[in-house]
Amino acid sequence: MSSLSIPASGIAGHRAMAVIEARRMARHPVFVLGVALGFVVLGLYVVLVGDETGIPVVLTLPLLGAFYIGLASVIAAALLTRSTEVAVETIATAPGTEARRTLALAATGIPPLVAGLVFSVALVVLAKVIGVAPQEWWFGTLPDWQVWSIVLMCPVACFDGALLGVLAGRWLRFRGASAMVVVALIVVSVLGQPLLDTGSSEWRLWVPWAIFHTGDNPDGTQTLIAGNPAAYLGYLLALGALAVLGAMWHDRTARTPRFRILVAAVAAAAVAFFVLAATTGNHDNRDSDPIPSRATS
Amino acid sequence: MSTRLWYLRRGVAWLPLLGGCGAAAVIAGLLAWWPDDAFLLAPALLACCAAAAAFAYDEDALPVVAVTPRGAGWRRANRLGVTLVPLSAWALVVALRPGEVPFWRPGWWLLGGATVLLVAGSAALASRRLVPTPGALLAPVVALAAVAPVTLAGMFSWGTLYPIGDFPDTVRTVWLGVALIGAVVCAVALRPGLRP
Fold it and tell me: Residue A138: which residues within 8 A CB-CB, separation 6 or more?
């Protein structure tokens, strides 16, 4: 009965639909499992890998949250999007369009965003409490905005993961599509960035997950890879927006001239952020001072 | 035999199953092109083969066919044979060693066989519990799980579960454990009858 009380149109109706989708996401077993694994692995890392200097290679750790929470969100959001397909004829007779339902599905990104934010805050707090080596790329050796930009890549990737899942759920009808999307995302992210290639590393930033920190090198140094992480964060957000618009594009009735202009504007913003990320910030890879206890050669 | 083949030809969701094998072939091509990235491409290839195996038990009309006179056990046992398709794809790639990646073949065959066995057993178990299309959920989860150890290998000192070159005894023990669990799951799933 509660669904009948939802207004058929307007902000209130959309908010109600978005809340429903966000709740479905927060309760989805795959998402819950991904979040749990992300935090368990972070905990294990802090307990098992820490040395006398503190937590090693902190700036690589957002990858853990992005991988476990973000990729689980791709799967969960795709499954949630596809879940209404069995009743598509019934839903089609209800007030509202497919594009409106897709926009509500974009709210599935909220729980991953929150989980990613909690992950990032936990990371920063743990690094503050346990400490890091003085030579480590972190606050103090890097400008604060660069550190925050790299740390916040985790929640943004988690958010984008859900939006990509909605896009995949809308367009890819074959079974196992989300499995293929997950594998493709990982393969593209790795093959698309020739790590430690100092000559062209800024242009690697077209990939959906760019690495800015190599971890410990054999001589105990760490390499900060070229590029502007703040602009890259903007690029990731623009990709997420494009994913939502791409999913809404599936509804032919949504393709109004105004909507097309919006898509073009967001695509242009994505390109602009990418160019900014590749042409500003650090132009060369930078090695930290060596951390003697981490040298292996 | 002809009855079994007739059933498998019409009953199995061949499109996603062969699609997974096709994706594995594409990644094998990438592996030949970028052998230095085998640390990730080989697990991604395994992910595709394992995801393909997850579809072996998809059957939309499961509530109907599960109660036919021939029995659900016959159906589940025959469908297990379908996993030979992704398993063959995996075995072929490991045998051919694209990009001359130095896989230690017995170890990598064990690794793929154990994973596919565990996935097929899990799908069969879900089918036993009357889940009509376990592949829809199992395939993406398995794909993610197959690649996840790569993230751990770079951060912990445990070593990798996907060793290129030497295949340490500890890694072999882990994969033998996975194979054992897979065999147990299959045995439980293939018992005659429906739910436990």
Answer: A58, A59, A127, A132, A147
